[in-house]
Amino acid sequence: MQEVLNFLSELKVNNNKEWFDQNRKRYEESRKKVLFLTELIIHEINKFDPEIGNQNPKDCVFRIFRDVRFSPDKTPYKINMGSFIAKGGRKSVGAGYYLHIEPGGSFVGGGAYCPPADSLKALRTEIFDHPEEFKNLINSNSFRTMYPEMYDDKLKTAPKGFPKDFPEIDLLKYKSYAFTSRISDSDVSGDAFVGKIIAAFKELSPVNRFLNTAIEKWL
């Protein structure tokens, strides 16, 4: 994957259409590598989480083109490549597995990132009903070693509809139930990259199962 890192590094300092058009072949080759990697990962995930099914990698890999309509940043291209593997592909509202390749900022992870309001309420309801089960999943030694922290975007007060005196109210304040684990550039370009990704995703799979069960139960 070193070629992908090299392309993205150069794109970061040449984020314009003229340079991109001149290097379109390199982009297409990089995208093919990410698609192939995603296909391998899908196959491996199915061994421990068959619920995701046989996804088409093209439905999981994100476009490199930025939506600049409502952004003050008008640079046209993302400086990363990634894929979200879940039932329904990258547009899924359920929990899944995310791969992010960016020079100096690569990571793996997943869960439910910024779910829509109804899904978020379902997740909070399930955690409210089964707080110990969820805590045991995210606080196990192996999980905390791989994913030290949950994505920290929280409400300042208890979410509407839940009692403020609930002992685990802090768990219900999260707006996402997502986790990340950093990966170095040397890991991305190394021979053990796929194995590291799969190990991280396998560790995440019980949490994803809890989250997806909640969404299926309450929606």
From TrEMBL:
Q: Which Pfam families match?
A: DUF2461
On the tree of life, the source organism's domain of life is Bacteria
Query: Membrane-spanning residues where?
Result: none
Signal peptide region: none
Q: Which PANTHER family match?
A: CHROMOSOME 12, WHOLE GENOME SHOTGUN SEQUENCE, DUF2461 DOMAIN-CONTAINING PROTEIN
Name of the protein described by the UniProt record: TIGR02453 family protein
Species name? Aquipluma nitroreducens
